[in-house]
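User: Predict the complex.
Assistant: Input components as received:
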Amino acid sequence: MSITGQAVHNGIRSKLVRIGWHHPEWWVVVVAAMAWIFVAGMSYPHVSHTGITPGTGHGQGTLGMVAMVIAMMLPLTLTNVRHVALSSLWRRRHRAIATFLVGFLAVWIVVQTAIVGTWELLAPLTGWEAAAGVAMVTAALWEVAPIKRQRLRRCHRTVALAPRGWRASADCVRYGVTTGFSCVTMCWALMVAAAAFSHSFMVMAVLFAVQMSGRYQQRPSSVLAALAVLGVCLLSFAARFPHH
Amino acid sequence: MFERRDVWKLSEENPWHPIIEWYARAVTAMQGRDLTDPTSLRYLAAIHGVNRRELPRRRWPRGATWNECQHDSWFFLPWHRIYLHYFESVVRRTIADLGGPSDWALPYWDYSDPERENVRRLPPAFRERQMPSGDPNPLFVSERAPGINQGGELDPLFVDIDDAMAIRHFSRPTVDLDPDPANEFVSSGFGGPRSGWNHSEGALGRLEITPHGQVHVGVGGIDPPGWMSLFETAGLDPIFYLHHANIDRLWEAWLGLGDGRKNPGVRWRSMWFKVGGGAYAVTLSVREVLDTTQPPLTYRYSNISVPAPIPAPVLAASPNPESRSAEEEPVPQDSFPEMVGASEDRLPLAATPTEVEVAVEAPAGPALMAESAEGARPRKVYLKVENVRGEKLAAPGYLVHVNLPPRADPTEYEDRRAGQVTMFGVREASEGDEEHSGSGLTFSFDITGVVQRLQETGEWDPDRLRVTFTPVGAGAAQGGDVSAGRVSLFYA
């Protein structure tokens, strides 16, 4: 390698190292991105020439369900992930992230299993349209409910972590579980809607954007969020019944 | 142009200077107004904070922007500036309606000048039960710390502005789009850490700790907490607004010091806040309140001079013997803070000194690389006191010292002082409600200078750190339940 090439190589390497220092959460972003690609790929076969086939989309498969949880929920917890990583000894920081995520995802996978199970029981009884309509309205109302703001604050909670040994790992798992519960109490309505419209990549993407906005914007608008939920779900309904 | 003047200078001219007397008369009128009136003192106080258990949201007036004060955030200073503007407008209009001058401006309480006698006492008009007319004095509040209404002085440490003024970055050191988050993590800067809307929790900027928080609890007391000591009642004490006018003045003074001191960029400036109700309500962005001499604010301070700060050290440089703990310079651009040790258990912050030992590991990441590259020790050292939570305070605040000898008098070891921890806001930040996650407060200190001096005298142990919390201020009480989640050490 020429001297110039070596310098470029070293420059890139140095930049990557710095990104790794500053953003220990990088691999969580990569995992979430891969989950989105998986979810998008799973959505494709369900689009027919007449529109979108509702009901038994990819969300109901275990793999699809886990992918949906990872895609939609991991990005919401990046600040918690950073807190865990930067509050840990250097040699432990990726282990700390992993143990945190074990707790966080365990909560969400149990909850999402319950949501999907309940959905599969109820939707055939009431009809998909009625059940999805209720899910849509509930999600929109939840966005403007004052209690949601309280739940959102809980997601910002930080805790003191033990620095080393099994107590450090236990603290990370415990923090993952409590953050998972906080996240569930904030996002349950949107995740029910996501399960109801899981055939539609567009709905999932918009619901994800609403969640991200609520979590990270300086001053999120609850009314805009509710309108976005209603709008995209109604669009999905329209696509479902193109001749009506 | 309105001029905000020094209340102690006014008091020296006349304890009941017309500016003070008209303020009192306006406060009397505002106290008589209904809670739902946006110009009542109770409504104004509720904007800053309200007790949700006594007054849940469903009972608030329509559109009320209550419980909105921004703390532990880079919006601490601009939000309070907007809030003071609203308050001042209401008082000015009230005074005009009472037949007073139309150019009244809020005085400020400069308690920090060590050259002036008395300034650490409440101004006389705030301590007298009656006005010269014989009417009850609305500026007098009995819910204050013991002795403060008798002319007791605030602890000199509570009004120390040197540490805050020495910091050169507001919230982070460079342009707003700088992707480097290192400084946010270990250093909250002069004005507070980057955040979204944040009522109270997380890390505090240095000005918000001292003098802001310490003066709050110094005036309000802790057992029981007086009005100034709680978010929900602070705005009921008329001295509150003079205290915050001084904090606002110190922001101007800090900018005036130059040497790289500047306000943050676009993201911070774009945030907006609505304060107040009715015809007086104001909705202003941060950008609109950065120049106080321009509309809508149109005021200036009679004096914004402060002593020049001492430059901050780095470990590679030789120590400055005059420097006690000039603080909080940015993390070096080619480094990143690395945690090298933390305490194992929660640490009670009690009425007596508390000590904790932290086992320190050798750096394994960026700090190690910086060390080997320069053949020197890490260039910056930070101490964090994390997740301070509790409901009942045992002291107004604490001095934090590093490697204090056993049973030593901390006042004799100023060169080992990391900083101060204030209890103002701890109770609120410990709650889990619509405004708080329950994380408590976090304090970060640049202790590079302290470590440098310890190294010079051979008293720095790279494997072990001892941190002592000493109660400071009058009124320490047994039975408090406040504790720190942990104490941690970072190298960069």
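Chain A is about 75% helix and 0% strand.
Let me know if you want any component modeled separately.
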